[in-house]
From TrEMBL:
GO terms for molecular function: ATP binding; protein serine/threonine kinase activity; transmembrane receptor protein tyrosine kinase activity. The chain crosses the membrane at residues 20-41. Keywords: ATP-binding, Kinase, Membrane, Nucleotide-binding, Serine/threonine-protein kinase, Transferase, Transmembrane, Transmembrane helix. InterPro entries: ANXUR1/2-like, Kinase-like_dom_sf, Prot_kinase_dom, Protein_kinase_ATP_BS, Ser-Thr/Tyr_kinase_cat_dom. This is MALECTIN/RECEPTOR-LIKE KINASE FAMILY PROTEIN. ATP binds at residue 127. Coiled coil: none annotated. GO terms for cellular component: plasma membrane; plasmodesma. Residues 99-319 form the Protein kinase domain. Residues 287-303 have a biased composition (Low complexity).
Length: 319
């Protein structure tokens, strides 16, 4: 006896086959999408891991040239000039006993200052920038660019710097006896001078060895600039560019021949107040005295150099 399948069972079998095919297609497509997604994520992670290694292998070039980006390369001459000031991080760690807190001598907006001794027994002050500070980067760059070119007996000299391991470290010569204000018996020179500035008698406290050499208009401009810099609130103080412009103006007024050094019969040091004799010791100014030259050409070139003395220092990337 032969069994005949009813029509309903055939249609059910066909439906199951269709659903199996559709399910397999959808599953395969989902697996393919998942593989593509995982591959994209892994590629992105690999790129992120490669970036730090590439940056660490590059030579230090944070100093911008002609307004370029932070990745701009400096010229070989400039790069070699700054490389001569580089100090290995290991040497600085040894000099400061790995930045021991007992050697901490100060702190500020840029970072912490430590006392240290280099391998050649040079006493130094090590200023270590705050980790990851973008605000301190312009100051770090500017101090290297400017202080590496300036040497003066009254200015702290920059000995070197370190930028290894993303550090921003500046190394200065150490002032063994501390700042000048500690030796003035608590006399605040700024307040003392401003009292005479407000009276319009700043010439009364000019050093006796400079009496008659400073012109009134130049001294007035200088006093006004200093007074603005000592304003109580930061918003009232001029920018560094304005300060340098005013100082250059005061220098030009001093060099002009349109005004006598002082009025006839005027004693610029009459009734001048005195600081304690032991507070300020007289200094020999002979080291800073230049040699006079005759001739209009020499005078002209000297005036050009003097008029540019402040403008050459102007750098708005600093603090």
């Amino acid at each position: 006896m032969k069994m005949i399948n009813p029509p309903g069972s055939r249609s059910g079998s066909k439906n199951r086959t269709v659903w199996i095919v559709v399910g397999s297609s959808i599953g395969g497509f989902a697996v393919l999408c998942l593989i593509i997604f995982v591959a994209a994520i892994s590629c992105k992670c690999k790129k992120k891991k490669l970036k730090p290694g590439r940056v660490e292998n590059e030579a230090w070039t944070p100093l911008r040239v002609n307004g370029g980006s932070a990745h701009s390369r400096m010229s070989e001459l400039t790069l070699n000039e700054y490389r001569s000031l580089k100090i290995p991080f290991a040497d600085i760690q040894m000099a400061t006993n790995n930045f021991d807190n007992s050697l901490k001598i100060g702190s500020g907006g840029f970072g912490v200052v430590f006392k240290g001794v280099l391998g050649d027994n040079t006493k130094v002050a090590v200023k270590r920038g705050l980790p990851g500070s973008r605000q301190g980067l312009p100051e770090f760059q500017t101090e290297i660019k400017i202080l590496s070119k300036i040497r003066h007996c009254h200015l702290v000299s920059l000995i070197g710097y370190c930028e290894e391991q993303s550090e921003m470290i500046l190394v200065y010569e150490y002032m063994e006896k501390g700042p000048l204000k500690k030796h003035l018996d608590q006399v605040n020179l700024a307040e003392w001078a401003m009292e005479w500035q407000k009276k319009g008698m700043l010439e009364k406290i000019v050093d006796a060895r400079l009496a008659g050499q400073i012109k009134k208009r130049s001294l007035k401009k200088f006093g006004e600039t200093a007074e603005k810099c000592l304003a109580d609130y930061g918003v009232d103080r001029p920018s560094m560019g304005d300060v340098l412009w005013n100082l250059e103006c005061a220098l030009q007024l001093q060099e002009s021949d349109s005004e006598p050094s002082r009025e006839p019969g005027e004693d610029s040091n009459a009734n001048a107040p005195e600081l304690p004799a032991h507070a300020i010791a007289p200094r020999d100014l002979s080291d800073n005295t230049g040699t006079e030259t005759d001739g209009s050409d020499g005078s002209s070139s000297s005036e050009i150099r003097n008029s540019q003395v402040f403008s050459q220092l102007m750098n708005n990337d600093g603090r």
